[in-house]
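Could you help me review a protein record that somebody else here produced? This is what I was given.
***
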Amino acid sequence: MDPTLIRCERRGAGRPMIMLHGLGDRRQCWRSVSADLLREYEVVCVDLPGFGSSPAPEPDEPYDVHSLTTAVQEFCALHGFERPHVVGNSLGGAIALELGVRGVAGSVTVFSPIGFSDALARLGMRAAGGAARLVGHVPLRVKERLADTAAARALARAVLRGNPASPQARETRFAVRGLEPGSPFIRMVPRVAAYSFEARPIACPVTIAWGDRDRTLLPTSAIAAHLRVPHARMVSLIGCGHIPMVDDPVSVTEQIRWTCRAADRVVFS
């Protein structure tokens, strides 16, 4: 993966902060959070390869958590981001932790990272990946109509939002444009299901936060996360689902700021 092709949005000034989205998402998911951090940090919201405006790797190139971690590491080196704070959600959370293991990150704050699910949950992910591959062969106009049905929208709210009944959740729906044969989403799902974070030292402050209403990666996964990253500060985000930046951006911002300031105290002391 060519790091020069990774697209991002850079705003603010100060120590760099890299923000990494989840599977199928894009950099704009951080806007409600990043706006409050611009006075303290240079916030860099990244489109991971294959999502948003960043092109996917070629079909014969490696495309998994570890190759994405390498791509983001090379992106940081390319732009001179030395020991940046790294923030991630879901897939982006795993990449952030791996960057911490490699010594690239100055701090790591993650929300519902992949890599800590039990065998049954990973089996469910593989089944979902198989279903997504089947849906990929359905014409786009049909998928769009199905995604807009009341049942599909209700399921999307239940899976993705902490409070499915809230007014803010009303417009939630599954994105279906990425469900095409050979698409980045289809390619990555089995890699996500197979990935497991291995316990290794991370020599920087780490916060692992989980929404207590996460129905995509269950909050019980936080137990495995605590065992494998024992020095991490563990946080439960009350009322939040799998994408807490949408459910409670204020709390998400507070957790990011806490971790960053812990690292900044070490740097400047």
Notes: The mean pLDDT is 89. The longest strand covers residues 15-20. The chain is about 40% helix and 15% strand.
